[in-house]
Design a protein that fits this description.
Blueprint lengths: L13 H15 L6 H21 L3 H10 L3 H4 L7 H19 L2 H4 L2 H37 L4
């Protein structure tokens, strides 16, 4: 097992660390976009954090700036332009379900469908919790770098 990289590892710069944390948040947000879009946005956020850090802003300033970034910066276009890609992904999942289960979902008992939807929503909530935990770790690391916490 390789050692966990931290901002103090010689092979990882602070910029790389910030980008990795940003990338984790971006990927778990389920935004449409390519890997290249995600990587570019992660480093853009890292650069913004580093620039803000040298000017001495608060963590709230850095997080507000990151939160102000628009979805357009992920795919370079109107956010609704990605809807056709989203619809194609949904169609692909429906087709995969058809191959795996046939068309039984269309004839399934509505109560069973509601139960399955409930399970899926719990999964979405679980992933949201994972994202919140990771964002809080990122905020704590930023605060520690600012010297606000031990």
């Amino acid at each position: 097992m390789s050692p966990r990289r931290t901002p103090t590892s010689p092979a990882v710069t602070l910029r790389d660390f910030f980008a990795a944390e940003a990338l984790a948040a971006i990927v778990t947000s389920a935004r449409p976009g390519s890997s290249a879009d995600y990587a570019a946005l992660a480093y853009e956020l890292a650069d913004a954090a580093l620039a803000a850090r040298t000017k001495g802003p608060t963590t709230a300033d850095v997080l507000a700036a990151a939160g102000a970034m628009k979805l357009e910066q992920v795919d370079g276009a109107d956010p609704l332009a990605a809807f056709s890609d989203f619809a194609a992904e949904v169609r692909k999942r429906l087709d995969a379900g058809r191959v795996a289960y046939g068309d039984r979902s269309f004839a399934a008992d509505p109560a069973e469908l509601v139960r399955q939807i409930e399970e899926e929503l719990l999964d979405v909530c679980g992933w949201s919790f994972v994202l919140v935990v990771r964002l809080r770790r990122l905020r704590a690391a930023a605060e520690q770098l600012e010297g606000r916490t031990p």
